[in-house]
Amino acid sequence: MFTSRAEDRLSLRHDNADQRLTGRAFSTGLVNEARFHSFEEKMHLLEQARVIAVGTKLNGTPVSRLLKRPDFDVTALPRDMLSGVPLSIWELLETDFKYEGYAARQSEQNHRLDRKRNQKIPDGVDYNKIAGLRSETRQKLSKLRPTSVGQAARISGITPSDISILHIWLSRNGLCYEYAKTGELK
Questions:
Q1: Average pLDDT of span 36-58
Q2: What radius of gyration do the chain's Cα atoms show?
Q3: Which of the four, 45, 54, 98, 163, has the lowest number of CB atoms within 10 Å?
Q4: Exposure of 134 by Cβ count < 10 A (0-12 exposed, 13-18 middle, 19+ buried)?
Q5: Which residue range is the domain that position 135 belongs to?
Q6: What is the DSSP secondary-structure string of the chain?
Q7: Is residue 184 assigned to a domain?
Q8: How do strand 61-62 and strand 57-58 relate by DSSP bridges?
Q9: Do 95 and 141 fall into the same domain?
């Protein structure tokens, strides 16, 4: 799977792979204790840097807010601040802060999309009439004829933006139905 198709793609970065996977790898025996101890030390340093960034102000602005700015990076931090934690940890924290708002927005979009998954697509929808859909999407939807937005979302090549366009079109045309838990239409 491409990360561009993953729901939480902003969280799937190469620089945080160890944060996402080391705990699981250790619990299944794929990571030895020495490697896990090294990971725990890194996480401790990352939390230490986060506390410093949130609690320290430069010219009246919290460092955590400064690190979110595109024109500011960790090399602009005072030397005494950088000396307690390795530069690589500061750089990782900077990336976390810069992505934080985008990741939160993406998470909210994912929650909204999850609520749309049960929306029924009426039989006979002419996908060529839906403005904004890519031609590849129109072809796949016309050929496969999904019965719900959730089914459409699972089709290879259909993007989250395609699903949003489909949902909006269904809503605007009064075709917004959801399957009840019993399988009947609401």
A1: 96
A2: 23
A3: 54
A4: middle
A5: 117-178
A6: --GGGSTTGGG--GGGHHHHHHHHHHHTTSS-HHHHHHHHHHHHHHHHHHHHHHH-EETTEEHHHHTTSTT--GGGS-HHHHTTS-HHHHHHHHHHHHHHHHHHHHHHHHHHHHHHTTEE--TT--GGGSTT--HHHHHHHHHH--SBHHHHHTSTT--HHHHHHHHHHHHHTT--EEB-TTS-B-
A7: no
A8: antiparallel
A9: no
Q: Indicate the Cα dihedral angle 28, 33, 39, 43, nearest 10°.
A: 90
pLDDT value of position 4: 52
- Tell me whether residue 172 is in a domain: yes
Q: What is the mean pLDDT of residues 101-123?
A: 81
Domain edge (last residue) among 112, 130, 153: 112
End residue of a domain, out of 90, 112, 134: 112
Q: Phi and psi at residue 148, in whole multiples of 5°? A: -145, 160
pLDDT in tens, 66-102: 999 999 999 999 999 998 899 999 999 999 999 888 8
Q: Nearest Cα to 92, choosing from 142, 47, 122?
A: 47
List the structure tokens of 5.
């198709």
CB 127 within 8 A of CB 142: yes
CATH code of the domain in which 156 resides: 1.10.150.570
pTM of the model: 0.63
> Is the predicted pLDDT of residue 185 greater than 50, yes or no?
no
Please give the structure tokens belonging to residue 164: 């949003």
